[in-house]
TrEMBL record:
Any Pfam family hit: Peptidase_M16
Annotated family: Belongs to the peptidase M16 family.
Peptidase M16 C-terminal domain segment(s): 223-399, 683-858
Name of the molecule in the record: Insulinase family protein
Domain Peptidase M16 N-terminal, residue spans: 65-204, 532-648
UniProt keywords, alphabetically: Signal
Keyword Signal: yes
InterPro entries associated with the record: Metalloenz_LuxS/M16 (IPR011249), MPP/UQCRC_Complex (IPR050361), Pept_M16_N (IPR011765), Peptidase_M16_C (IPR007863)
Organism (species): Roseateles amylovorans
Signal peptide: 1-35
Top-level taxon of origin: Bacteria
């Protein structure tokens, strides 16, 4: 996957950072109503059967297009699957399919390198990326509905003319990027090498699933340009590709344009099906893996039936029964009752050449993997002998149904699901048949399949324990070529002059954003409704001003401890009853605390929303804070602190907050708190915090989805009207300003780390400042976007990183600016030097007209695509309320962004970005990184531990031999 900055959960003036950068598109007018109201969806549930209205068309060259007309939003999802993945790789070329995915964005005959992303962003694109799985590679983005032809032009040129431009320079660059991705996602991530070991134990040499999708350093580096050309000729042809268009378009128009852009592409030779027998294990395989981790982990994995084959759905249900959340058997036994495990995850990973059933259990500190394994075996034996209960079957089916509908909520999710069914089931409209599998099966069938498939003699057992990480021999990164060699270019398709010019956009529909209607109950509770008919789904967020800034000075982490305790029992429900009830409803219930606020959120099917909201109301208003539950939560939080120390980016974030805000500031410590505070927290302090901060006059309930005003009013009156408002004034929160330390560079030692995790931070403005839009536009160009100056230079030009981004976090009373990412260890200093050059360049002169237009218009036109789920709408309005923003802060975004000029953005850079104030926090191998940091010349330089505490002079000494550059 090419990492791109994801759409945040809440798009606020304080937290929102634009995804897009581009030019060309005119500014649209603002309409007061949300376009989704009353719009037709392609997905229907008539008669209780889930159906999708679609049409599948096959061109003469074999290219498939599936048209899904859906008018809920003025958006079109483009989702293109090339039916090739690691299952199609040749021996010694692990990671080839994934590397090819990256190369697909390196430019085409008609689109210069780096321009495709800018064009997508300029048009208001969202969800733009590519991913590789064992059986396929997909490429996708979502555009406003007036950009149908532009999207088809882009996709057809990627498929038909990428090979014309790929050369040794592009290949070398993306080899560096992908190897950085491997370092970040496998070697520098806890348990990354463990997951790789599981697949290598399951599959023999030569099986296409044996290696990780991302491949090995040696294989990635050994790939030649000739290999790339051959892979393109064989697999990247129209007769091996399917495009799903889902959204707001006319099918007749779409078919004509698909023929225009894809029809002329030449078909390749027929791709033969891959036939590889599924391996059979006749005895248990056990192995031990040591990794740089704090908590040990157990993995048990089996070969299971291929996707959509008999037994696949039964094992999916079994995965829910065994490890599908807090209501599952293994969670109740290992996490809740015995308190041996920090987490449990069970999955049926369905694939075309045979699936994998995996049980994953992370142990609590000091707990025995042997004891955990015995209890897992006991539960497996029980399920193989006795069928799931009716309640367990109902909960599993509810989870499957809700999960599927939730994926369909976004048009891009709908398109991807259709493509999945088309390839794996041979029927794009397999949705109803898929759900029917789960409804038709019996509990006895689940038991029988478990007994047949999950045998002790046919499994792999992996014990992962803390210790030395053992990696393959280092593969050098060769110098990147500066120019392409002669004869590197070739073509598969004849050129056409008309392809050289991007098509003009169609007539834009009025730009609309969801408008929340505010009312206030007599007890002071604010209620905000965001109607969104279409799919029968509803989401709610109860937000309270009870975040980190409300923590007492001696109890960091108390706000998040309190929020976590809400689901651990009420006056009428136990913790397990809450979990079972939520699961039975197919609802997702969460609670947590951020910097300014605490939230309780729930999402469910509409038919179950009344009961789901009642559950939310109960945990908010009647928490029990039972001593036994406090002890359980205490142990979980202490283990979570240990997990935090495993992850270099998390350590960088924790240390950055401490050195930025200064000792004693509530935002200086981890949201979990520290060991001393966790140990000192008791039921009385939790209850006191809840009583002071969980009150209706300091809360807002935001509801988004398929619910009428009358339906919501009835629910709110019955559930929240009797919530009593205390007579005492609301408790004050800490509004102190940050007090940064003097050091300009802070290093945290992580010996032998293959990457350095960076957090470059400074104090920033709070929410609601006048130049917020100017800041966002300026930052989008500097480091906020995939196509930003910083990411382009460090990733696309130098190949130092998999991705690096900057963002402003604007809180209610303070804020910060941060640049975050991981870079290869040996180029830490060079990457920082380049980063500061880009910052200086941003402050040197105003943006040119083209760059400003791209950044500003991209943010404006992308807005509708960033409000495409109920959860996002509810979370966004909840954040705006918690930050004290006006009721029109969302609907006024287009006006605010439209007012940004080159001069106002430049002024924001000059006044809000001070390079001298930035503190560099680096988490990496001190022996290799310290000399590079010293050479930067930023002083003072300080050494800190993983909590941000100073390291003593003796402990910070570096041997002379290690200090050599």
């Amino acid at each position: 996957m090419r990492i791109k900055k994801p759409a945040p959960a809440a798009l606020t003036l304080a937290l929102w950072s634009a995804l897009s950068l581009g030019a060309l598109a005119p500014m649209a007018a603002l309409s007061p109503a949300w376009a989704a109201t009353g719009a037709a969806s392609a997905v229907t549930t008539d008669g209780g059967s889930l159906q999708v209205k679609l049409e599948k068309v096959k061109l003469a060259n074999g290219f498939e297009v599936i048209l899904v007309e859906d008018h809920r939003l003025p958006l079109i999802a483009f989702n293109m699957w090339v039916h090739a993945g690691p299952r199609n790789e040749a021996a010694g070329q692990t990671g080839f399919a994934h590397l090819f995915e990256h190369l697909m964005f390196a430019g085409t005959r008609h689109i210069p390198r780096g321009q495709a992303d800018k064009i997508v962003d300029a048009a208001g694109g969202t969800d733009s990326n590519g991913t590789t799985d064992f059986d396929r590679t997909n490429y996708f983005f979502t555009l406003p509905s007036n950009q149908l032809e532009l999207g088809l032009w882009l996709k057809s040129d990627m498929l038909g003319y990428m090979i014309d431009e790929v050369d040794s320079v592009a290949l070398a660059n993306q080899q560096d990027v992908v190897r950085n991705e491997r370092r970040q996602s496998v070697e520098n991530r806890p348990y990354g090498i463990v997951e790789e070991a599981v697949f290598q134990a399951l599959y023999p040499e030569g099986h296409p699933y044996r290696a990780s999708v991302i491949g090995s350093h040696a294989d990635i580096q050994s790939i030649k340009l000739a290999d790339v050309k051959a892979f393109a000729r064989r697999y990247y042809r129209p007769n091996n590709t399917t495009l799903v268009l889902a959204g707001d378009f006319n099918p007749a128009d779409a078919k004509k344009l698909v023929e225009k852009y894809f029809g002329p592409l030449k078909a390749g030779e027929a791709v033969p099906p891959v036939h590889v027998p599924q391996p059979t294990l006749t005895e248990e395989k056990r192995l031990a893996v040591t990794d740089r981790i704090e908590l040990s982990r157990l993995n048990i994995a089996w070969h299971t039936p291929a996707v959509f084959q008999p037994g696949d759905a039964e094992l999916d249900i079994a995965s829910h029964v065994l490890g599908g959340g807090k209501s599952s058997r293994l969670y109740k036994t290992l996490v809740y009752d015995k308190q041996l495990a920090q987490s449990v995850s069970v999955s049926q990973y369905s694939l075309s050449l045979g699936s994998v059933f995996n049980i994953e259990v992370v142990a609590r500190p000091g707990k025995s993997l042997e004891e955990i394994e015995k209890l897992v075996n006991d539960e497996l034996d029980a399920l193989s002998q006795n069928p799931p209960t009716p309640e367990e079957m109902a909960r599993a089916r509810a989870a499957v149904e809700t999960g599927l509908l939730t994926r369909l909520e976004k048009v891009q999710g709908l398109a991807d699901q259709i493509n999945y069914y088309n390839q794996q089931a041979g029927d794009p409209n397999y949705m109803a048949k898929d759900l029917a599998r789960y409804q038709a099966m019996t509990a006895a069938q689940v038991r029988d399949v478990v007994a047949q498939q999950l045998k002790k003699t046919a499994r792999v057992v992996v014990y992962a324990t803390p210790g030395e990480q053992k990696l393959a021999a280092e593969v050098p990164t060769p110098p990147m070529p500066t120019r392409a060699g002669k004869g590197e270019r070739e073509s598969l398709n004849a050129d056409a002059a008309w392809r050289k010019t991007p098509p003009k956009s169609g007539k834009a529909k009025p730009l609309t954003l969801p408008e929340g209607k505010r009312t206030t109950l007599a007890n002071g509770l604010t209620v905000i409704q965001v109607p969104n008919p279409g799919l029968p789904l509803v989401s709610a967020s109860l937000v309270l001003r009870a975040g980190q800034t409300a923590n007492p000075a001696d109890k960091p982490g108390l706000s998040s401890f309190t929020a976590a305790m809400l689901q651990q029992g009420t006056q009428t429900r136990s913790a397990q009853q809450i979990a079972d009830e939520a699961a039975a409803l197919g609802a997702t219930l969460t609670s947590g605390a951020g910097r300014d606020e605490a939230r309780i959120e729930v999402s469910s099917l509409k038919r179950n929303f009344g009961q789901s909201l009642a559950l939310l109301a109960d945990v908010a208003m009647h928490p029990a804070f039972a001593e036994a539950e406090v002890e359980r939560q205490r142990a979980e939080r202490l283990a979570a602190l240990a997990q935090q120390r495993e992850q270099a980016p998390s350590v960088a974030a924790v240390v950055a907050n401490r050195v930025l805000y200064g000792e004693g500031h509530p935002l200086a410590r981890s949201s979990l708190g520290d060991e001393a505070a966790i140990q000192a927290t008791d039921a009385a302090s939790l209850r006191q915090f809840w009583q002071r901060h969980y009150r209706p006059d300091e809360a807002a309930l935001v509801v988004a989805g398929d619910l009428s005003e009358a339906e919501l009013k009835s629910l709110v009156d019955s559930l929240f009207a009797k919530w009593e408002r205390p007579t005492a004034a609301a408790a004050a929160v800490n509004t102190a300003a940050p007090q940064p330390i003097d050091a300009r560079v802070v290093l945290v030692d992580k010996p032998n780390a293959p990457q350095t995790a960076l957090a470059v931070v400074a104090a920033g403005p709070k929410a609601g400042v006048r130049d917020a839009a100017d800041l966002k536009v300026m930052n989008a160009a500097m480091g906020g976007l995939f196509t930003s100056r910083i990411n382009t230079q460090l990733r696309e030009v130098k190949g130092y990183t998999y991705g690096i981004y900057s963002a402003y976090s604007m809180n209610r009373d303070s804020g910060n600016f941060a640049i975050r990412g991981s870079v290869r260890t040996d180029v830490t200093g060079a990457a920082l030097s380049d980063m500061f050059k880009e910052i200086d360049g941003m402050r040197a002169k105003p943006m040119g007209a083209a760059e400003l237009s791209r950044v500003r218009n991209a943010q404006l036109l992308a807005l509708p695509g960033l409000f495409d789920t109920n959860r996002v709408m509810a979370a966004t309005y909840a954040s705006e309320w918690a930050l004290g923003q006006p009721a029109d802060s969302i609907t006024s975004l287009p006006r605010q962004y439209g007012a940004v000029t080159a001069q106002s953005a430049y002024q924001a850079a000059r006044t809000r970005v001070d390079p001298a104030a930035l503190i560099v926090v680096a988490v990496g191998d001190k022996a290799k990184v310290l000399p590079q940091l010293e050479a930067l010349g930023r002083k003072p330089l300080a050494l800190r531990d993983v909590t941000g505490a100073p390291v003593s002079a003796a402990a910070s000494a570096v041997p002379a031999s290690a200090a050599k550059p």
